[in-house]
Amino acid sequence: MMIFHVTFINLFSSEQVFDAKNLPSPRYGGEAIAIPDFKEDLLLLTKSATLAIQDYNSQTLTDYQFLHIEMVTWQLVNGILYHITFQAMNAADKEHATFEATVLNKSGIFRKVKRFRMKGSSTW
Fold this sequence. Notes:
Shape: globular
Number of strands: 6
Strand content: 35-45%
Number of helices: 1
Structural class: alpha+beta
Helix content: 10-25%
CATH topology: Nuclear Transport Factor 2, Chain: A
């Protein structure tokens, strides 16, 4: 799992923020830092992704279960805004899918799903 910190996220659209190859380089005034082993926040990120998939299930009447996180970018706002790409499996037909979610985390206690979708979907 790779986690990146994005300081100048306004350089990118809401679609590009989930893709590490689109992160800014230092020459453009932004900073992307890869953190290969981020075990300290793994539980928090897993809870955030699980919350997002529960919201997705309730709105689409599906039964996807969280599997693992693929990539995370984050942005410091009034709290931390995590942009999480993760895998989930539909319990009914064992279909695997990739999801993207933006979750606001304040003080490690309050979490709110700001948006989520199945990767490749054109709507949030």
